[in-house]
Amino acid sequence: MNNKISISVIIPVYNEEHCIKQCLDAVWAQEYVNEVIVIDNNCTDNTVNIVKKHYKKTIILKEHRQGQQYAQALGFDRSTGDIIARIDADTILPNLWSNQLINIFDKNQKFNAVTGYGYSRTGIKSRKFGRLWTIIYYAEAKAILGVSVLWGSNMAIKKDVWQKARQFYYMGDKKVHDDQSLSLALATTSEPILLAPNLVVSVDSGSIMRLGKLWSYYKLQIITKMIYKNIHWRFKSNIFKRLLLFVVTLPIVIGWFLFSIIYTLFKRKIKIWI
Predict the structure, then answer these.
(1) What is the DSSP string of 210-273?
(2) Of 55, 224, 268, 272, which sits with the fewest C-beta atoms within 10 Å of its C-beta?
(3) Neighbouring residues of 61: CB distance < 8 A, sequence distance ≥ 6
(4) CATH for 245
(5) In what order do the strands lie in the sheet with 155-158?
């Protein structure tokens, strides 16, 4: 293992007081994390105060423009590590996550961008189902966007690769998927993304069971795709593979939408009864 490699962890936050402490406890417990940057994207709760009080070594940056693409870019630009890791505030890293990340880059020299799987601590908590859920995410996103994608709760790229892809990364006023936007920017520089099966984190994915959140996700995905429609992708997946992925994942996506409708209505009824 190369202990000279430094890792910066970037965490965009917006009103995350309920989960930021668990997240940072796990991040600072990592053996090979040298720098942690929290991006305050206009929090109105106690998130920033918690970070200031309990995590003195954590760098806090303010991004006034609302949107994760802005917050992510600011953190990536200001980071000093050889590897830039990106997680969400609800992500909890396992103890040896940074060790695994360095090993993955060491053993896969042709890859400069890595992403992994995740299971949920809320809602459906099965680890096997969680991995299946992220598998569907990767397959469905590739079918729609045409390229392999990163997942913002568990991903990392090399600093020099970010600097090359930076000019293609969308920084306009439309809201986009920051992780998928970065994936498409990497595609323009012919940077393949490695999906590492042993890079696993836990997240709070309960929100994706709600219809509003799920609908917003797909709306942003289409916006992201349209923004990058004029960029030439040198290794875009062929149409037959994308069609196969779409056909396989479509029934699951429809089923999840139906489930989210029932779940949302059920939760509303519970609130009415209360």
Answers:
(1) SHHHHHHHHHHHHHHHHHTTTSPPTTPPPHHHHHHHHHHHHHHHHHHHHHHHHHHHHHHHHHHH
(2) 272
(3) 37, 38, 39, 40, 74, 75, 78
(4) 3.90.550.10
(5) 59-62, 33-40, 7-13, 83-86, 155-158, 113-120, 193-203
Query: Mean pLDDT throughout 249-266?
Result: 84
Q: Which domain holds residue 158?
A: 7-273
**Rounded CA separation 100/116 (Å):** 11
The answer to the question of residue 2 being in a domain is no
Mean confidence (pLDDT) of the chain:
90
**Buried/exposed code over 222-255 (b: 16+ C-beta within 10 A; e: otherwise):** eebbeebeeeeeeeebeeeebeebeeebeeeeee
Mean pLDDT over residues 134-158, rounded? 94
Distance CA 95, CA 48 (A): 24
- pLDDT one-digit tens code per residue, 23-51: 999 999 999 999 999 999 999 999 999 99
What's the total number of domains in the chain? 1
